[in-house]
Prior knowledge:
Elements: H1 2-43, H2 50-58, H3 61-78, H4 82-92, H5 97-121, H6 127-150, H7 154-177, H8 189-203, H9 207-217, H10 222-247, H11 253-273, H12 279-302
Helix pairs in contact: 1-5, 3-4, 3-11, 4-5, 4-12, 5-10, 5-11, 6-8, 6-10, 7-9, 7-12, 8-9, 9-10
Amino acid sequence: MNSITKSTEMTTEKPQERNIEEWLWVGIPITLLTCILGYLIYKHAGSFTIQAFKDGFDSDLVFYLLVGIGAQLVDGSLGMGYGATATSFLLTLGVPPAVSSTSVHLSEMFTTGASAISHFKFKNINKKLFRTLLIPGVIGSIIGAYLLSDVIDGNVIKPYISAYMVVLGCIIVSKGIKKNNVKKPTKRLGVLAIFGGFMDAVGGGGWGPIVTSTLIGRGRDPRYTIGSVNAAEFAVAFASGVTFLLFEGINSWQVVLGLMVGGMIAAPFGAYLVNKVNRKPLMVIVGLLVIFLGLRVVLKAIL
């Protein structure tokens, strides 16, 4: 009788546990993003006129949309590349580092939220790894966003950020051509997450290339590493995005809107493709693209 009662309780508890888990992984991102979206509409309602939208479409809004789609497809399937790719393109267009990083991170608040939900739906997340990366990554991103918004002169560090993008591109390429490694224990995950979050906020990209590539390079399963790192990236991007909003504000809503909408459209496809695409050739292509764009800005600053 007791065994029957216990089995009955287990069957009745499982749907409740699933409902709670569903709310945590889906409800929290949607709630946070709804609040941010409401704040943006309230704060900048006067900017969204018909003429402003016409001017937006006359500018590079469609291009930003395509960049958002492409960057998110790469990021969702590789676990890296959204910030590095998008920021590299923005810097080559002459967008200042602070505006570029703000735009990327504000859009990433929404794209990473959609990506986290998608990876949860496709069961790509290692929850222990996710929890280990979460808080340190948030701390690093807040520090980096504050320094870039209120302390560091963006124009001065622009060539250095582009040089950092070249380094990121080299990391991505090296991971693409490297043979699979035997799994090794990864120590100091918190330090890795702090550094990844900090460099991501300052450089407008780097969470994936630093954290994902390190973990996969140590032999971790690509599917669960990418899903877990992308899920944690939502909190990292949200923390830095809010920090940028407080200190920097929005200076180019066309960039934010294009990247945001494009990334949200592509997020489910990226999560689906994580186990479908041949990652190594794609990593080499993305890495070479980031290197090219970064070198272009560096050489322009030198010459």
